[in-house]
Write a structure and sequence with these properties.
Elements (H helix, E strand, L loop, with lengths): L4 H8 L5 E5 L6 H15 L4 E5 L3 H6 L1 H11 L8 E2 L4 E3 L5 E5 L1 H4 L6 E4 L7 H8 L6 E5 L6 H4 L7 E3 L13 H18 L7 H9 L15 E4 L7 E8 L7 E9 L2 E10 L4 H10 L8 E3 L4 H9 L4 E3 L6 H10 L3 E4 L3 H9 L2 E3 L5 E5 L5 H22 L1
Parallel strand pairs: 1-7, 1-8, 2-5, 2-6, 6-7, 9-15, 10-13, 12-15, 13-14
Antiparallel strand pairs: 3-4, 4-5, 10-11, 11-12, 16-17
Helix pairs in contact: 1-2, 2-4, 8-9, 12-14
């Protein structure tokens, strides 16, 4: 059912108070740690455990979702013990596991602390939680680059670190190995061309296949942060859509402006959607069809079909320099992304410039991790740049 005995055994063998657990994608880090904490709660009375991630939406799609799945599939879940409002499960012996974002949990005390995807948590927040934790601390992350777990915590005498990979997760999805083999082949091609280890696929494999610390040089967008919601006083600039199907997702977002700063909210990031499916999903999400939507001009058929279904569609302006123009436009604004826009946040963190053989960044982005960013760029091209050009004349 949860065949990740290797990952669980490796973590249980760690005798230190602070257990630092970097690892590859699909390594089973979250599931393994949750299994261990659930077992601790069952065996000990009145154990107080906090699971923390950067935001509540992040928790709901990650650690909290995995916790509920484990409890239900192992027959341990009692709905009367689950407080969905407080995100807290209380066991019959008085032990509990609570799920919080840092701002909600810093001042409280606990026995066990689990920081999920710790590279998105500030060190100051971690430190405040750590000094209020009496027993064990678990820290996990994909090692995209060095941060406080490496530079501060790992140097402590009461801390130890192990690295997990997808090979430690016996229940990984069947397609993981195939996808990783493709990525490793691309990394070998980059290596054969003499590209440095910071090149995209070599760096990607270091982090997400081998679980080793990578180097995120050349990140394109550093001008953004997260907010809880779109301000009511903001004005809608436009909606953006990028089409996909089997390999790439279809995406949809809205862009607002207030005080010359952009606010963005992700609505759709799904694969295998036909145009009628898109119509149904956006309707379910409460999207107003009269809002102008800027879509990928490479798919005029979809634009036409969605227009026939009532959407106010417009093809994105494209040209030889449209990618650079859109990026430059977006870089000129402070961008605020709603914290529930999980996929857009991941893309903004990963979107990077290509590099040459010496590792120098080129003025061309890597065509990867950009499906929502493309939708955002379309809005910049048609609704911001075009308006600015008209105002110049």
């Amino acid at each position: 059912m949860f065949a990740i005995t290797t990952a669980v055994k490796k973590i249980r063998a760690m005798m230190s108070r602070i257990k630092i657990i970097p690892g590859s994608s699909s390594a089973g880090k979250t599931i393994a740690i949750l299994i261990i904490i659930i077992d601790m709660c069952i065996r000990r009375k009145n154990l107080e455990c906090s699971v923390v991630a950067e935001s509540v939406p992040h928790l709901k799609k990650g650690a909290m979702k995995d916790f509920l799945k484990i409890m239900k599939q192992t027959g341990r879940f009692n709905p009367l013990n689950w407080n969905a409002t407080d995100r807290k499960y209380t066991f019959t012996n008085g032990s509990y596991i609570e799920f919080f974002s840092p701002e909600s949990v810093i001042g409280s005390r606990r026995n066990v602390l689990y920081i999920n995807e710790a590279n998105y948590i500030k060190y100051e927040d971690y430190h405040q939680m750590a000094i209020r934790t009496s027993d064990e601390i678990f820290i996990d992350f994909n090692p995209a680059n060095e941060f406080w777990a490496h530079l501060e915590v790992a140097k402590q005498s009461n801390a130890s670190m192990i690295t997990l990979t997808y090979l430690d997760n016996e229940s990984r999805p069947a397609n993981v190995d195939e996808e990783f083999n493709i990525a490793m082949a691309k990394a070998e091609e980059e290596k054969a061309k003499g590209l440095p280890i910071t090149s995209f696929w070599r760096n990607w494999c270091e982090v997400y296949v081998h679980g080793r610390t990578g180097n995120l040089q050349g990140v394109i967008f550093n001008n953004w942060d997260t907010v809880k919601e779109i301000p009511k006083e903001s004005k809608l600039v436009g909606s953006g859509m990028d089409f996909g199907f089997t390999n790439d997702p279809t995406t949809y977002l809205k862009v607002y402006m207030m005080d010359n700063e952009l606010y963005v909210k992700e609505y759709l990031y799904e694969r295998n959607l036909t145009n009628p499916d898109i119509d149904r999903r956006l309707t379910e999400l409460g999207i107003n069809k009269n809002d102008k939507t800027i879509a990928d001009s490479a798919d005029p058929k979809s634009i036409k079909e969605l227009s026939n279904l009532g959407f106010k569609m417009e093809a994105a302006d494209k040209g030889p320099d449209s990618i650079s123009a859109g990026i430059n436009c977006l870089q000129s604004f402070k961008i605020h992304v709603t914290e529930d826009s999980n996929n857009l946040i991941k893309e903004l963190r990963a979107y990077r410039w290509k590099v040459d053989k010496s590792g120098t960044a080129l003025n061309e982005p890597i065509d990867h991790s950009n499906h929502l960013i493309d939708a955002l760029r379309y809005v910049a091209l048609n609704c911001i740049l075009k308006k600015t050009m008209w105002e110049m004349y």
